[in-house]
From TrEMBL:
Species name: Gomphillus americanus
Annotated protein name in UniProt: RAVE complex protein Rav1 C-terminal domain-containing protein
One GO cellular component term: RAVE complex
Cross-referenced Pfam families: Rav1p_C (PF12234)
Classification via SMART domains: WD40
Length: 1301
């Protein structure tokens, strides 16, 4: 935590106290209705809020027991500490004492011995507080007491009334719980008494029992001591110190105020001993040591100008009055305790405590609205020759009195404003200090009418506040802000926001503010300083706030809210054009979940503001309760229940993250910031915690979330009050307002944090790491040997590069030791990477990847892979986490295995086999992956491979020739096999293995498979051998019938329905096949069994690929499922099987639900970024060059859509950390060469020879122009193709500029 602002201290004399208890130095004060307990300058031990809203006024702490008495709401509340034995004390209410007090007055409190509490007002009441309140003494006073104190032994009580010249000393005559008796006497003073304090004698044995220090209006300290215990008075005047004349300022007009601090002799001695031990003995320390041995007391006198005068005295009973010396020890100037203090109506109050273990002195100074905490070494403070700084400012304790409701910030986060419900507004500024940043109080704005919205201008020096029908501009660079100008306005509806509009560079001296009402009407004001001409010179004049224009956004009536977009650490820039590249200014949201981001441009010449919708996102979130947008084009939305969060990218209108939090975790706030390289960070506010999410790299292989929790801040340890609001500073610190307190958390986190240790590279050091550095590490470019980068290279057809990179990695690891310099790029040559790869060679003596790219290299053999994995098991590879290193070892094994079979497989078969092998390795390592199977992406590689025979053999051999249906589903075998003869052969193998998989050899297990193969006779033979089965006889009788006859079809159907009632779905599907009802059998597999692959396999095996049932299944089940889930791979496969190869190509670059006439409402997953896999562009390029239908389908895609798709894939590569692949894509992409029509728009009929569309013709283009196989596809138009547009191919430079290279 960087800093805390526990709240504004009460302006009452007893609102603050300090004590040492249980080896802790406690500073306790009241702020509003809160009791704040600190044990360090930057650590709150506990905050206790009173249930009543009335403020607390006075407190006292018992240094023996740690009990705290605090007065508020007409009662004295006693808090008792618990858990002190474990080092984490917490106070809880023990009981409350009610009483009658003078109106507009409050009691003063003091603790004695044995947990006795004195309450003084117009009376003195002494309570015993062991278990409950017990009044043991009571007496009336003539005037309300303003100060009271117990002597160290509890036998004397000193009281004084307001403006009184007499200190009343009460002496206890009896002890016990009953019939206490006190005598009293008076100590006379010439003027009114301002303070009194007993000398602490609990740690030393002296011949004088009681010593009292008093100060009165004549500027003198009087020392009273019990020199003669048998005298008429209990205390006698021992000596005086003239503190008024002890400091003579050079400027006589300086204020007279003097402030005193007393240090007891015993504490002084222990502190000087500690100073000598820690800092060595010097002449001044030796001198102080001599004074401390004599048990000398210290009186330190300060004034507002920084003067310090130190007096030393030693109270001894035997000293005659003439020898009672008070010696002046030091007089110095420029003491730091008043530097930067804002003095007001209330005179500062000094409290001090000394750490005897270290010799340091802490000075706590209470002024009008703050507490300043200073620390210094006692030896350095009392050194008259000291030239260095004596005191160091440790903390400023200030803040609000009431609970904080809202915190706003400037665009750059250099200033914030915190607001309470009662009209108290404080402007804070961020300061850059040596070890980071700090927050300081800048100005206070007090308003009478409630503030609806506020906006900080010009680094917080000006503030605009929006009220009902009025806007006010404040000059907030002073301690107390003053209103400069106010304008009234009239709008239909309630104002929704106050926007700070971006301006061009030549209008930086002007600020434009806009508000929009619930009826979409808006007003724009301009704030500027009029220039005054004085003697021919131009000077800044009075600020002016005037209406600039009115406007109407014209949005629909179901608008939920319109809010400003969070600048996320960067100032809005004006591009000069109002287009998709303009800066987001506002975000609107409807009750149906439609998000629109808006840009605005000020037209000064025509006195108007132009609005432009940048992006529109259909989130399908009904009645969103909260939303927040970022200038980095991210939007977070919270659902109506306030526990569901989704994060969207407005550039692609895609969902990046979705999570539903546990019941009770109510989301109440969203705040954005970003790193200097524009990686987004989101703070999610809950009632008692802040969860910080950061964007991380996309992962299309392991399907990991694109956002991760990197920090969690819980506030319950510091305050029981729920969080009101939070915001980010420009430095990356997070400011949290809870109750009347502000907590500033810096951006340092530890690598051992549970949230980040699995995300970042593990380090042995426990030193904190920068939040921005962590986020940059999770988003930057990947090293070329990273498993994700290598996997994407394999998909992009760069297997040769992958092998070279792994070989170079092996060579470099041989001689690597921890701490050596390491190049994460392995000296890769980007120009070589984006060119066609050279053939492999046998050279092994190269030391960099760049040299290998210039010549041929050897392949990654299994022996080399084994050696590399042994090195990976022994050494930590730089820039890889432990988990990533495990994944790299898996990839090495997969590449080596695929290389062994590479000469017998084409490129697509290699892709499938490599990732199938990778899946099986992961499955063996993590049992949770079992049953998931390869994705439709891997299925499509095998489906479009010409090496399916060898793939089938490799998959079968992987399962030791015992291929069962669960294995076929894992490998998607029957989705990608095209040869019907091989398909049926493998299906029969599965039927046989399903029968033999158990020792019982149950024919039921294989019934569906043999009946799909139409081999009822084989099934009959198996049943004849199942003599143990109780259903054998009935089943054999059933199978012996002719199911071409209607009666036996009916009997089979009855059995099928009966089995469905018993939820034996697979066996029921077999009986439907027996009855010849293939459609119902397929539907059971797809619906009841939730196995779409089994349904497709049964349809293909039973009736072939031309089966109307298969077409119907694809149209009614597969395509709607693909549209619902957004699976473009599945949709492309289904279209290809339907004979619509043109649509198979189009579905790769177009969301599936946009291609179907009635696709239904897509799921949230259909809008996820995962639906746009970068490997889609690889298959798209393949298919459009593979067949004539595919080429025509690609020609039906508008060139603009294709260009945007390529740019989007390049952005995805960049977000994945694969920047080199993004560069390779935009550098080598080939657009279709569409003909330019003579009139109108181009039509498909204008293309006479589609092969001319490709600049580099493919000699293997297959002519496949027959009409679609499915009659329903021919008859029903499922698709609404966009009209083609004339488009010229962008230049390579255009592509690179759009991507950011």
């Amino acid at each position: 935590m960087r800093g805390i602002f526990p709240g504004k201290p009460r302006a009452t004399p007893q609102a603050l106290c300090t004590t040492q208890w249980n080896d802790k130095h406690l500073v306790i004060y009241v702020s509003g209705n809160a009791l704040v307990i600190l044990d360090h300058a930057d650590h709150i031990l506990q905050t206790i809020y009173q249930d009543e809203a009335q403020a607390l006024d006075a407190l006292a702490v018992d240094k023996h027991t740690g009990k705290i008495a605090v007065y508020g709401s007409g009662a004295v509340h006693i808090y008792k500490p618990y858990g002190a034995d474990w080092g984490l004390p917490k106070w809880s209410l023990q009981f409350s004492i009610s009483g009658e007090y003078v109106e507009h007055s409050y009691p003063v409190l003091a603790w004695g011995l044995s947990e006795e509490l004195l309450v003084a007002n117009t009376y003195l009441k002494l309570y015993q507080t062991w278990e409950s309140e017990a009044l043991i003494w009571n007496t009336e006073l003539s005037s309300p007491a303003i100060a009271t104190a117990f002597s160290t032994d509890g036998s004397l009580i000193a009281t004084v009334a307001r403006y009184d010249k007499l200190v009343k000393i009460w002496k206890r005559r009896s002890y016990g719980s009953g019939n206490l008796q006190f005598d009293y006497s008076y100590l006379r003073h010439p003027t009114a008494i301002t303070s009194l304090q007993w000398k602490d004698q609990s740690t030393e044995e002296t011949e004088i029992e009681h010593v009292l220090f008093t100060i009165c209006g004549d500027g003198k300290v009087r020392i009273w001591a019990s020199i003669d215990p048998h005298g008429l008075d209990y205390l006698q005047l021992w000596s005086e110190i003239d503190i008024a004349s002890s400091i003579q300022p050079r400027n006589p007009t300086q204020e007279f105020d003097r402030f005193t601090v007393f240090i007891d002799g015993s504490l002084f001695r222990r502190a000087i001993d500690a100073t000598g031990r820690f800092h060595g003995m010097s002449p001044i320390i030796e001198h102080l040591n001599d004074l401390s041995k004599a048990q000398s007391d210290i009186c330190m006198v300060f004034d507002r100008s920084g003067h310090l005068c130190v007096w030393v005295f030693n109270i001894i009973k035997s000293q005659p009055p003439g020898r009672r010396e008070v010696v002046n020890m030091i007089y110095t100037e420029d003491v730091e305790v008043f530097q930067g203090l804002k003095t007001g109506n209330r005179p500062p109050e000094f409290l001090s405590f000394i750490d005897a273990a270290t010799g340091s002195q802490s000075m706590v100074i209470v002024s009008d609205d703050s507490i300043n905490w200073f620390e210094g070494q006692l030896g350095k403070i009392l050194d008259p020759t000291q030239k260095d700084q004596r005191f160091v400012h440790k903390a400023l304790l200030t803040g609000h009195e009431k609970s904080i409701e809202k915190i706003n910030r400037t665009a750059k986060g250099r200033a914030i404003i915190s607001r309470t419900a009662d009209g108290e507004n404080i402007v804070w500024q961020q300061l850059d200090i040596k070890d980071g940043t700090a927050l300081c109080r800048h100005s206070q704005i007090t308003v009478k009418s409630p503030i609806i919205k506020s906006c900080l201008l010009r680094k917080g020096d000006y503030t605009a506040t929006l009220h009902t029908g009025q806007i006010t501009l404040w000059k907030s660079h002073l301690d107390k802000a003053t209103p400069v100008v106010s304008n009234t306005f009239a709008l239909d509806g309630e104002p929704l926001c106050l926007l700070h509009l971006p301006v061009s560079d030549n209008a930086k001296e002007q600020d434009y503010l806009a508000t929009v009402s619930s009826t979409m009407q808006g007003i724009v004001w301009v704030f500027k300083r009029q220039a005054d001409i004085v003697n021919g010179n131009c000077h800044d004049g009075a600020p002016v706030l005037e209406q600039f224009c009115i406007f109407n956004l014209g949005l629909q009536d179901n608008l939920s809210f319109l809010i400003p977009v969070d600048p996320a650490g960067s100032m809005p820039n004006v591009s000069g054009f109002l287009d998709a590249f303009a800066q987001d200014v506002a975000l609107s949201c409807t009750n149906k979940g439609t998000l629109v981001t808006w840009a605005a441009q000020v037209d000064e010449n025509n006195a108007k503001v132009q609005w432009f919708p940048i992006a529109t996102i259909e989130t399908s979130i009904m009645d969103p309760s909260l939303a927040s947008g970022s200038s980095t084009r991210k939007v977070a939305v919270v659902d109506a229940e306030r526990n569901g969060l989704s994060i969207w990218d407005t550039r692609s209108s895609q969902l990046e993250y979705g999570r539903t939090f546990a019941f009770g975790d109510t989301i109440q706030d969203l705040d954005w910031t970003s790193t200097p390289t524009n990686q987004s960070i989101l703070a999610i506010g809950f009632p008692y915690k802040i969860m910080i999410l950061a964007q991380i790299r996309y992962d299309y292989l392991d399907l990991k979330p694109a956002w991760a929790v990197i920090r969690e801040i819980r506030t319950r340890d510091s305050t029981p009050h729920p969080i009101g609001d939070s915001t980010w500073l420009g430095s990356g610190s997070l400011v949290i307002g809870a109750g009347n307190q502000l907590f500033v958390y810096d951006k340092n986190i530890t690598s051992s944090d549970e949230n980040v240790k699995d995300l970042v590279i593990s380090t042995k050091s426990e030193e904190p790491i920068d939040l921005f550095d962590v986020v940059a590490l999770l988003n930057g470019p990947l090293p070329v040997y990273h498993p994700q980068f290598l996997s994407q290279c394999i998909l992009a057809g760069k297997l040769q590069f992958v092998q070279r990179a792994l070989i170079i990695l092996h060579e470099n690891l041989k001689f690597y030791t921890e701490g050596d310099t390491w190049d994460p790029t392995l000296s890769v040559d980007l120009d070589k990477f984006t060119c066609i790869e050279a053939p492999l060679s046998k050279s092994r003596d190269k030391s960099s990847l760049g040299e290998y790219l210039q010549e041929e290299t050897e392949t990654l053999t299994e022996d080399l892979a084994l050696a590399l994995n042994e090195a990976l098991a022994k050494k930590s590879v730089p820039f890889l986490s432990n988990q990533e290193q495990f994944h790299l070892a898996d990839l090495v094994e997969c590449v080596a295995t695929a290389e062994k079979h590479r000469r017998s497989m084409d490129e697509n078969a290699t892709r499938f086999f490599l990732f199938f092998r990778r899946y099986m390795l992961r499955k063996n390592q993590h049992k949770t992956a079992e049953g998931m199977g390869v994705t439709w992406r891997e299925t499509m590689w095998a489906f479009h491979s010409d090496s399916q025979e060898i793939l089938t053999d490799l998959v079968s051999r992987h399962y030791q020739g015992k291929l069962q249906w669960k294995h076929a589903r894992e490998s998607s075998l029957f989705m990608w096999m095209n040869d019907m003869s091989s398909l049926k052969t493998q299906f029969e193998i599965i039927a046989r293995n399903e029968y033999t998989k158990s020792e019982d050899r149950n024919p039921i297990d294989c019934s569906l498979y043999y009946l799909a193969l139409k081999k009822k006779s084989v099934l009959q033979g198996l049943w004849k051998m199942a003599t143990w089965h109780r259903e054998q006889a009935a089943t054999l009788r059933m199978l012996g019938n002719n199911f071409d006859e209607p009666r036996w079809k009916t009997a089979a159907l009855k059995n099928a329905y009966a089995l469905m009632g018993k939820r034996r779905f697979e066996y029921a599907a077999a009986f439907f096949l027996l009855a010849g009802n293939v459609k119902d059998a397929v539907n059971i597999c797809a619906s009841q069994m939730q196995d779409i692959q089994l349904a497709i396999a049964v349809a293909r095996v039973h009736d072939g690929d031309d089966s109307p049932i298969l077409y119907e299944l694809l149209e009614e089940k597969v395509l709607p499922l693909a549209a619902f889930e957004g699976d473009r791979w599945m949709a492309s496969w289904a279209f290809w099987k339907l004979g619509r190869r043109d649509m198979a190509v189009r579905s790769l670059i177009t969301p599936v639900y946009t291609l179907l006439d009635s696709p239904g409402r897509p799921s949230q997953e259909a809008k996820s970024y995962l639906t746009t896999d970068p490997a889609l562009v690889v298959l798209y390029r393949q298919l459009r060059e593979k067949t004539l239908q595919g080429l025509i389908g690609a020609s039906q895609v508008s060139p603009r859509a294709e260009w945007e798709f390529v740019i989007q894939i390049a952005r995805l590569y960049d977000r994945m950390g694969c920047d080199i692949l993004a560069l390779d894509l935009v550098r080598n992409w080939e657009f279709l060469k569409l003909p330019t029509p003579k009139q109108g728009k181009p039509r498909p009929t204008d293309i006479k020879d589609p092969r001319q569309l490709l600049r580099r013709r493919s000699s293997l283009l297959v002519v496949d122009m027959p009409s679609p196989k499915s009659p329903s596809v021919t008859k029903t138009h499922y698709f609404n193709p966009p009209p083609p547009k004339i488009f010229e191919e962008p230049s390579a430079n255009s592509l690179l500029d759009s991507f950011g290279f």
